[in-house]
Please model this.
Amino acid sequence: MIRYTIGRAISLCLSLIVASLVIFAVVEVVPGDPAAYMLGVNARPDTVAALRAELGLDVSLPQRYLAWTLGMVQGDFGTSYTYRTPIAQMIADRVAVSLPLALLALTLTIVIAFPAGIYAASRRGRLGDIGVMGATQLGIAVPNFWFAMILVLIFAIKLRWVSAGGFPGWDHGLLAGLKALILPAVALALPQAAILARVMRSSLLDMLGEDFIRTARAKGLSRRQALWRHAVRNALIPVLTIIGLQFSFLLAGGIVIEQVFFLPGLGRLIFQAISARDLIVVESVVMLLVALVILVNFTVDLAYAAVDPRLRTRS
Amino acid sequence: MKRLTALLLAGSTALFSTTALAQNTHVRVAMQLEPPNLDPTAGAAQAIDSVVYSNIYEGLTRFMSDGSVVPGLAESWEISADGLTYTFRLHDGVTFHDGTTMDAEDVKFSLDRARAEDSANAQKALFTSIADVTVIDPLTVQITLSAPNGSLLFNLAWGDAVIVAPESIGQAATHPIGTGAFTFQTWVQGDRIEIARNPNYWGTPATLETATFRFISDPTAAFAAMMAEDVDVFVGFPAPENVPQFEADPRFQVLIGNTEGETILAMNNAQAPFDNPLVRQAVAHAINRQEIIDGAMFGMGTPIGTHFAPHNPDYVDLTGISAYDPDRSRALLAEAGFPDGFTTTLKLPPPSYARRGGEIIAAQLRAVGITAEIENQEWAQWLENTFRGHDFGLTIVSHTEPMDIGIYANPEYYFQYNNPDFQALMTTLTSTTDPAARSALLAQAQTIIAEDYVNAYLFELAVPTIARAGITGLWLNQPTAAIDLTAVTWP
Model:
């Protein structure tokens, strides 16, 4: 187990180094100079050069890469070119919006998908199943920003229950914060719930065909009892894998929804930073997200090994 | 009993009168882009000036909504007979928001900083004629010029020339401290900026107690926020197609003002085939301006025939020189040696005037035989490749700086127009202070570039502002990027 863990840890470090190299290279290759962008069309070349020096852009690429990675190892993400504020603080502010939004959306996804998937599986081929499958087909086909626009039209413009967007900040109270996040969360959750419900249904149907379900039925359990006591638990394994993937998507993939609801989240930060060529912000935020995913995978690898002894010996 | 009734009556009158007097003392203003920082002296982003100009920072002179230049922190000034010395008398009792006094030393500091060797001022050219700034006494400052400059008072009104204090300039990017009628409160990055009335303002205090700026870039979200009354004012409303809906709604008022944005189809004058004046003339005659204004701007915008703002008293209407005439255009192309037309590139930056206008222009050019291959670019990419790299045949951009016809005197400028006569004319203009002589020179300058067909001049960009009915005192026009709230009331 120790050897396996060390092996995984080495691979984790290598992945992070490769990821940082790729991110840095890709971002720096994109045409556009942050200093020129900030100073606009009337700036004189000497002014642009002065600003480049002030921002530390006049040193060589390898030097900048080293400064960036060494800083991150020490927990210093650097300072934004355009905002002139520490990036760590900016990320913390934005995560305070994006993380609750992702969690809320994920909760909604599960709350909708589980009952819908189980119901459809238990009614296989009947009207209820066809109804749920039709609805999920629609949920997958319709893009979430369109959902978002419809929700705003109904709940913000017509009914005036919530505001059309923006975020008051958590210091205005939990309720005010949740109220601002509910529409974006619903818009994000509906397509994900549709996907998850379908996975839940097919995974359950697979289980219902297994020998152990036949045994359970033979031992006298009703169809419903067999489904709830044995099938659902076993069907959860592929479902949990999908939920893990969906969470990373919800955390990083809210860019469009954050634009539609003008929420100050991570997605909007990346969006603004890319157009302003605030390269160091783009690099740091993307690196952080990549590191999170790699770390989650590392944890999952360790968990698998703890559960399944075959994995340990194979390494 | 009588006394009680009287008391009640008096009480209710008082109650009613307070209701009648009650005003909305808070206004929520939306704009499309968030400022990257709040220091107008170190960045070109218009969003910076939109928030801080006149609200937080003030200069020696200032713009009004109609484009006129009036005294700001300077109470009055005298200009020496040779036009080389300007003596400014400053208002007494002006303090910065941190309580320190604003005096001649601060003026000297601000102007010296803007024109310094290592200055990061985006409009450094505004200050090139200044040779020296001298403090005479705490309320008198003298600016000496190296050569007469007829536009000095105008230049000093720009947001890039505001007066800052050495004590607080270090934090200006995130915590601006100026002399204006509003003080900076908070900035929740990505979401909003809040300002509050300055109780110690030296001039007429603002009516509003507080104001919030919000940033909504998505046109659909902008429409929703306005309709749901989440914001009260939207300056530069990004969905022109929805403007008629607001005009019809009694809850709102729509102001359509002009800007300093000459929107042009720029041609690469140094590159074939646009180095041939006949080709440039052919392009100009192929353009139907009204079709672009109607199709891309939903009717908002004034046709222009030269690089000058139509609302400026010195404007000359030269649209006739480049009137829409596709037959003439085809004949000119044949004369230039392109009877079957040619293929070129059309680089389009993000604003809708360029993206939507570009599609229409490409179709109009195709009608005379010119194939324009459209390439959409982000601003940063456009600045690097098109603007600095000169890698383009055609591009569309709105030049929003006020009075910027001088760019045609710079042969390095991206469209690379090199005409020594024009350059000489601009030198003469700079050193001319007599208003009548300046007008004549400006008219001459406008005519030269129109007759040389340097670029195809399309229209003057309009700016739609949507506001809740009853709000008064907003700027109609945008002579400079500003959302000046100092005179705004909402009874």
About this structure: Confidence is low (pLDDT under 50) at residues 1-21 of chain B. The CA atoms of residues 296 and 352 of chain B lie 7 Å apart.
